[in-house]
Design goal:
Layout lengths: L4 H4 L3 E5 L8 H11 L5 E5 L5 E2 L2 E2 L13 E4 L6 H11 L3 E4 L10 H13 L3 E3 L5 E4 L4 E4 L7 E8 L2 H14 L3 E6 L8 H9 L6 E6 L5 H10 L4 E5 L13 H5 L2 H11 L2 E3 L3 H13 L8 E5 L2 H13 L9 H8 L12 E2 L6 H13 L5 E7 L6 H15 L5 E6 L2 H12 L4 E2 L2 H19 L12 H13 L4 E2 L1 H10 L7 E4 L2 H9 L5 E6 L12 E5 L2 H18 L7 E6 L5 E10 L3 E8 L2 H4 L4 E5 L4 H7 L6 H5 L9 H17 L4 E11 L4 E3 L2 E5 L4
This protein binds adenosine-5'-diphosphate (ADP) and magnesium ion.
The site of magnesium ion (MG) has 2 residues, from loops.
């Protein structure tokens, strides 16, 4: 037995706060359990009532002469602690706390108190501030939503109660089949991760669908998603642009929560959707159809217009249509009049009847080139949509292959009815070609996830002790900012390439150091008070000889002192100048929910103005880092554009991975890392600027 079975497979349910007032939630919960024909035992509890909805009402939960698996708590917030205590004494195992008035209105203290009591008795809590649990397999509506959702195999979990009730109603219109609909509320105990884990083991569920506003334990969520064998589809609401704008580094200010959730979903193999319609559409597709295991999508249509719309959507959702092979085109020819088109989309023409659809679909699905199929139909005057969909269904069945199919029927009531029939027969139907394509794109996304197994992070062999020592030294000096020389020592300890160089305290020092290096050189101010060296006039590039070294030394000191007379100056860093290449940026920051995250982008205006960057939750290995690189819009520049050769993507991925490991290894000490710029070449790269900001604590 799973510890959450008492909540999701209860044999008996008590309603603590059951009421005789039909308008009260405590009444609705009793009535809903009765109306939904729950087969378990229902025990209303209320000290002032003897009977509710014809059921015997107990004055205390302790009076119930039987075991109670789950209790719905519908008493006012201030008496929830006492009710929880009683449930504990009774031996209740799961609490669904519908009552509100806790952390959502600033009463975290009251919520914590309830959690403590529940813990003492080993009870798990869903809520508080939930609508309840709508359980189709058990036919138990343990909630104040009016009825159970349209039955099916998706577990839908919502962080918004109002939305859950609305979505419940909508499932009956869209015919999106639901096993469980769960309101997750304040997540004082059970959170998304716990439910994902639970529904992975639930035989009545084959897809998990999430409406997410915010997640506290980001890592726990990510781990649960990674372990999930069942597809997860999610919408993230409340994506704020206001990242940590006060942060000193680029990564900090660019890491808005939207990008981080996007990264987490990708890494957790969660299909992220753009809006509520898509959540319904993709939930249905993932529940009814197999994943799409290749990129070859074929579209069959009886109308050119919907074919074009579908073609556009295919490009938008990243499964652009390709030309079908000649033998497939020949096969398609057999099912259309002379003026049809066997290309992709296959246009059967407005003359197409059931026989044409059946024949072309069956041949297409059986052809090895086809990985997935979208069937489009425009209602015509001489065809009956019901007849057409029966043809579609038959041909899928007779093809005998496991390939995904989605269907769009564009038309009136007859088409809608026919679509409903399709859904009942496990073929997803949508009213628009756009939605049918988007749904198959979600199936492709899931297929891609399946083809790319999640690996454990192994990590590089690095010199951690060295970094420990440097950080300890900084701390003892009370320094939060690791200046470039120290930061580069840290980078080098993690296997990153940095230019040769040394810190000069005096002009003579600088000359001596210059003699041990290769011209041209770069000279830079080193000061714990100067974060952006160029802004302070603290960087001199292309220093060509000893005379220029002396000049640069004085010039930099002059400029920095006039920029900030109080700046403490450690000296001037004399280093070799890296050859010209493509400037990129790699950075890390600490996210409140997800911890260390790593960012990659192109340097200069690309990062400053276009914010063309991409994120991952750290650490990531080189293979995963490689996936980040094509995600930026400026990828063409790295791939080699306008006569330039391609840059060393492998070296770049290696550097991203190493820095992600550094951020992870020192997550308690390091707040932000900035490698900006990292100059990339056809072979190899060089990190020419580095800074590390330590955490404030201790
Ligand atoms: P900051 O970012 O603090 O202003 P940087 O160290 O990044 O200072 O230097 C400013 C610019 O100078 C860099 O963006 C890079 O273009 C160039 N630069 C700095 N160091 C080197 C180097 N060793 N080799 C080549 N170019 C360099
Ligand atoms: Mg810089």
């Amino acid at each position: 037995m799973h510890p959450l079975d008492p909540i999701f497979k209860p044999k008996s349910i008590a309603i603590v706060g059951a009421s005789r007032d039909p308008r009260a939630i405590g009444h609705q919960c009793v009535k809903n359990l009765l109306d939904s024909e729950y087969k378990g035992k229902i025990y209303p509890v209320n000290p002032k009532a003897d009977e509710v909805e014809g059921l015997k009402c107990y004055h205390s939960i302790l009076d119930i002469p039987d075991e109670v698996d789950m209790a719905l708590i519908v008493v006012p917030a201030k008496v929830v602690p006492a009710a929880t205590e009683e449930c504990g004494k009774k031996g209740v195992k799961g609490l669904v706390i519908i009552a509100s008035g806790f952390s959502e209105i600033g009463r975290k203290d009251l919520e914590d108190q309830v959690v403590q009591i529940a813990k003492k008795y080993g009870m798990r809590i869903l809520g508080p501030n939930v609508v309840g649990v709508l359980n189709n397999p058990l036919k138990a509506n343990a909630s104040f939503a009016p009825y159970l959702p349209y039955p099916g195999r998706a577990a839908m979990i919502s962080q918004s109660g109002a939305l859950l009730i609305a979505m419940d109603a909508r499932t009956w219109v869209d015919h999106v089949g639901i096993s469980h609909m769960i309101s997750i509320g304040n997540m004082s105990d059970l959170d998304f991760a716990d439910l994902i884990e639970y529904f992975n083991g639930d035989k009545d569920t084959n897809v998990i669908s999430l409406y997410v506003e915010g997640i506290n334990k980001g890592r726990k969520f990510l781990d649960a998603c990674k372990k999930s064998k069942k597809p997860i589809v999610a919408i993230k609401a409340g994506v704020s642009k206001r990242g940590a704008s006060a942060a000193a580094s680029h990564t900090g200010s660019l890491a808005g929560s939207a990008k981080i959730y996007e990264a987490a979903f990708k890494q957790g193999h969660v299909v992220q959707v753009e809006n509520l319609n898509a959540l319904f559409d993709e939930t249905m597709a993932l529940a009814l159809q197999p994943p799409m295991m290749g990129d070859n999508l074929l579209i069959i249509t009886n109308g050119g217009g919907v074919g074009v719309l579908a073609t556009d959507a295919a490009e938008k959702y990243k499964i652009p249509l390709k030309d079908a092979p000649d033998d497939l085109k020949l096969l398609m020819r057999k099912h259309m009049p002379e003026f049809g088109s066997p290309k992709n989309p296959v246009d059967l023409t407005g003359m197409a009847d059931r026989v044409n659809y059946e024949g072309s679909i069956k041949d297409a699905l059986k052809h090895p080139w086809v990985d997935g199929l979208v069937v489009l139909y425009c209602e015509t005057s001489f065809t009956d949509p019901m007849n057409i969909v029966k043809g579609i269904y038959n041909s899928i069945k007779e093809s005998g292959v496991e390939k995904p199919v989605t269907v769009s029927l564009v038309g009136g009531e007859r088409s809608i009815k026919a679509g409903q029939w399709l859904i009942e027969n496990r073929v997803p139907y949508y009213s628009s070609p756009h939605a049918a394509v988007r749904a198959i794109a979600a199936l492709r996304q899931h297929g891609k996830f399946m083809q790319k197994p999640i690996r454990d992070f192994k990590g590089y062999n690095v010199n951690k002790q060295k970094v420990d020592a440097i950080i300890a030294k900084m701390k003892s000096n009370g320094r939060k900012l690791l200046t470039e020389p120290y930061a580069k020592e840290v980078f080098a300890a993690y296997g990153l390439t940095v230019p040769k160089g040394k810190l000069a305290k005096t002009e003579e020092d600088a000359v001596k150091i210059a003699r041990s290096l290769k011209y041209p050189l770069v000279m830079k101010i080193v000061s714990p008070d100067v974060i952006h060296k160029s802004d302070a006039g603290g960087v001199k590039v292309d220093v060509k000889n000893e005379k220029e070294v002396r000049e640069a030394f004085r010039e930099i000191l002059d400029r920095v002192t006039s920029y900030d007379p109080h700046a403490r100056i450690d000296g001037i860093y004399v280093q070799e100048m890296a050859p010209w290449g493509t400037e990129t940026i790699i950075g890390t920051t600490n996210d409140k929910q997800f911890g260390p995250i790593v960012m990659f982008g192109l340097g200069g205006v690309f990062v400053e103005i276009l914010k063309d960057v991409t994120f991952r939750i750290a650490p990531i290995d080189k293979e995963d880092a490689k996936d980040m690189i094509p995600e930026i819009k400026g990828y063409g520049i790295l791939r080699g554009a306008r006569g330039q050769k391609a840059k060393d993507i492998d070296a770049l991925a290696d550097a991203i991975s190493r820095l992600s490991q550094l951020a992870w290894d020192f997550k308690d000490e390091i707040s932000e890392i900035d490698a900006n710029p990292v100059i990339v070449y056809e072979k190899g790269l060089c990190v020419v600027d580095a800074r590390i900001i330590l955490k404030d604590n201790r």
